[in-house]
Amino acid sequence: MNDERYVRLPVSHQLPADIDFISLHDSSGAFRIIVESRDTLNHGQGRRVRRWAVNFRKPYAYRNADEGKRLKSLSILTGGGGIYAVENSSLAEWLHEESGYTRETRLSAWAVVTINDWIEVVGGAPEVKEIMGDES
Hints:
- By secondary structure, the protein is mainly beta.
- About 10% of the residues lie in helices and about 50% in strands.
- A five-stranded antiparallel β-sheet has the order 1-6-7-8-5, with helices on one face. It has a four-stranded antiparallel β-sheet with strand order 2-3-4-9, with no helix packed on it.
- The chain starts with a strand and ends with a strand.
- The model has no long low-confidence stretch (mean pLDDT about 80).
């Protein structure tokens, strides 16, 4: 097995390190992961809930695991949750073997790491959009 390497995406595409997994949607070529963060406002005056959609167009494959089952991978991450490019992805390697794609077919892999889940996607680059930012 190859050694995976995780490269945190640039700050402009980052989510807070304490994001939590909300849902995953896979329909008609659109794949969306919903995550959220809850921050306590100044002086304990309520909480701010922020929610983002992490969108992928027509991914080749994806898998989701409880982050507690990825202890080896977690030990090499720096910075906690967020979105990472995955080099030497075992999921992309599996897809090469299963699908018959040649090695010349470059498959990009990504990991969305939250406080409770680890979602890996093989496909095009993710697009992140904030979809909610309420105070309660």
